[in-house]
Specification:
globular, three-stranded parallel β-sheet, single chain, 102 residues, mainly alpha
């Protein structure tokens, strides 16, 4: 079985309300289809950083995200896992900034 590290954006696509923006909506639908049909083929891990991120924002949405992550395996809080989580977030933020014209 393959291993997958999930960051908060993916969890948000699973647990969040469906958006009206067609690009985001298609990402949500693809992610939800993947979860339904393929996620069982993977060991899915998260880090404490992901749990912390899932706890922020709208209270109702945070509860949904946290309910989802309780079923996922936690990586040990090592420097290596923290570096992986931070690199993943940095790459995502750079992509968002690039796509937004920043």
């Amino acid at each position: 079985m393959d291993t997958l590290y999930s960051e908060k954006t993916i969890i948000g696509h699973f647990a969040g309300r469906l958006r009206s923006d067609p690009i985001i909506l298609s990402r949500q639908q693809l992610t939800r289809d993947w979860r339904k049909n393929r996620a069982a083929q993977y060991h899915i891990y998260i880090s404490q950083l992901v749990v912390d991120e899932c706890s922020t924002g709208d209270g109702s949405a945070a509860q949904k995200r946290l309910a989802f992550v309780t079923n996922l395996e936690m990586l040990d809080g090592t420097t290596a896992t923290d570096s992986l989580a931070n690199a993943t977030l940095r790459k995502h933020i750079e992509g968002v900034c690039r796509d937004s014209g920043f």
